[in-house]
Amino acid sequence: MGSSGRRDGRLSPVAIVGWTGLAVMLVAGFLAALGGLNQSLYGAPAFVERYLDAIARDDIVSAAATPGVRFDEGDLAGAGLPADISTAMLRSNVVDAGPEDVRVLSDEAHDDGRHTVTVSYRLDTAIVQTAFDVNPIEPLYGVLHRWEFASSPLAVIEVTAAQSPLFTVGSLTLDARATKTGDELSAFTQTTQYLAIAPAVYEFGYQSTLLEAVPVQAIVEPGARAEVRVDALPTPAFVERVQAKVDEYLVDQCASQPVLQPAGCPFGVVIDDRIVGEPAWNIAESPAVTLVPGETTFEMPPTPGLAHISVEVQSLFDGTFSTLEQDESFTLALDATVRPDGSISIQLR
């Protein structure tokens, strides 16, 4: 005898209905699962959350590879940015802090398929709310949603590196002259634009033997343009080296000259009596070096010093001999710069 679901080798109507119902249930389950995936793992909010999570994990390569993040030439031109704008900051170990406590506030679907995903997050101590517009792109395997940012969330940070072309951001040291040519290379202050992943917190600064800059923090939101100034100022070691050069110059090149008016020096004396011995100079008080940023160099403003002369003289009035002991005040000003090899260049004014 055959199966109750078959008659003469054919499926009975009851079996057909059963198998059809099962197929419908399987298809419905698949579609429901697919819909669930498209609403969750492959939904617009999840796309935005993955981007923010990559920044928080300092996986900047993945964040920058997110569809819609990278600028093409047309995007750069449309934003008024140079085609050779630096991408040096688009790497790991540069971000000081990424978005934390991310929370999706809303997901608004539009008739054209675009979604506006509004999220809140914390950057350092600030609570920020951002609306990201994302567009659908070709589905994965033809069924799973994929997205791209309608406009790039990359930020532009304009860094002014004052008094030194070098600065640090995170663990990276950059040279603001990298994209410069010609006379721009010798400028005392350099300004350069950088593309930067956003939202994120960055810390800029600089530290070397001769120069240091107080760290500056920049909290950068998506699509923003931020300006940062890194002021590199002389360290105590820089001032000490210039002071040593000043002292050496005054003692070895000036006070060592046995004349009333040492050549190329900031002090001298005019005496009406006859000189009968070699004048002897010494530096009673050397000018205390202070350095402040100028237009093209670090400047030491006119600073007082005191030289002392001792010399045997004969009076033209009565012919008597005596030793003249006299202090002569003077001022000294100079310009100082750090050469590319790390040495110091000093120019007296």
Question: Key terms for this structure?
Answer:
six-stranded antiparallel sheet, 2 domains, single chain, five-stranded antiparallel sheet, membrane, 349 residues, alpha+beta, disordered N terminus
- Please tally the β strands and state the result: 20
Topology as a string of helices (H) and strands (E): EEHHHHEEEEEEEEEEEEHEEEEEE
- Helical stretch tally: 5
Rg for CA atoms = 37 Å
| pLDDT < 50 runs, ≥5 residues | 1-5
Q: Please, how many domains? A: 2
Q: Which word captures the global form?
A: rod-shaped
Largest sheet: 6 strands, antiparallel
The structure class reads alpha+beta
Q: What's the assembly state of these chains?
A: single chain
- Measured as a percent range, the helix fraction is 10-25%
Query: What is the CA–CA distance across the termini?
Result: 119 Å
- Mean pLDDT, to the nearest integer, reads 90
The proportion of strand residues reads: 35-45%
Task: Provide a short characterization of the protein structure.
With 349 residues, the protein is α+β, with helices and mostly antiparallel strands. It contains 5 helices and 20 strands. The strands form 5 sheets. Strands 15, 16, 17, 18, 19 and 20 form a 6-stranded antiparallel sheet that branches.
